[in-house]
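Input/output pair, single chain:
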Amino acid sequence: MTSTATPPWLGLPSHCDWLDDQFNRLIRFLNGAKLEAGGFGYLLEDGTSDLTRPRELYLTCRKTHVAALAHLRGIPGTGPLVDHGIEALLGIFHDKVNDGWFSALSPTGGPLPGRKEAYGHAFVLLAGSSATEAGRPRGRELFDKAEAVFLKYFWDEEAGMSRESFADDFSDSEDYRGANSNMHLVEACLAAGDTSGDPAWYNRALSMADRLINGAAREHNWFLPEHFDTSWKPVPEYNTDDRAHPFRPYGSTVGHWLEWSRLLLHVEASLENPPAWLREASIALFNHAIQYGWAVDGHDGFVYTTDFDGNVVTEVRMHWALCEGIAAAALLGTVTEEPLYEYWYRKLWDHAAEHFVEAERGTWKHQLAADLTEAGTVWPGRPDVYHVVNALLLPQLPASPSAAPALARGFL
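Output:
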């Protein structure tokens, strides 16, 4: 590691100006995702929406959330984007018969066969919180509905965790529990706590983090199990025949170690008397990702997944993992003031700028092969803006439970 005796990048106005410029460019790119049929689409490399793909709940929610952050940052024209997302989430995506939200709609029509998923509902709750913080007219209505559905159907008070999915009528609870959906629900619960003022939401976030990180990840030497049965016993061979699955890959997911590293510090910031393990585990997960995820096959970048002995399973580089690494390094640097994290913050941004960032429009290539050439086997196109915004915006905020409320309260 080389010395970083120069001022921290986040203390340089020129660096923050660069982050803000990339954010503004990305928001302009986001406009191409707005669909006349309702909601937001899957963005292609050229900035247009793929009109052959289903309209997915999580993408509409994420883009609504990002538009709300942009509105809170004072970018003109983004308020109507938030409203567009809200109208879709209270309209065509909302199941008026059974309640909850459909996971996907056809490109121009109604709901597609599928299940009511915790993953998508986490982002409805997040979008509702962010839209409320942005002061949009129906934001609170969306937040209240999302809060009620989550507590009625998904939250398992006895386990202190979320159930995974149901049939459309909320029967047939899936015989599976997932770390991925619960991880995103930690983010959503922190936002809900900020928006509602109810500290029970922070305790739910802590409960999920405790079982998955202080429990399962620690017990597996920080190789976080992603897949569990209904009693929360790990299922290590899950998806061994579909190892690069975009949402439920086999093995342990390096990018999630980094995402959890960041989230644990947000949980810490939400509590009056946070347990010491939150910061200890945050540091351990970040260091673990560097040791077992970074350049372990001889090429720079974070590999997608490993097995539970640290062997690479899927070597592709996902943009979202790098984004979360940047955000985690920044927040760890903020709370610890250790130069190690400034070193990695700079190193990861340099890697991003060289291989992922398309600076003229603020977009990122979503997936690279091990040789750092673009690949599109798992994530073709440019569908995601959510993780890139995490890398651009979260480093500039103080340690706080969630982004939109922090912006609404003038922390940036």
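The chain has one domain: 9-408. Residues 9-408 form a domain with the Glycosyltransferase fold (CATH 1.50.10.10).
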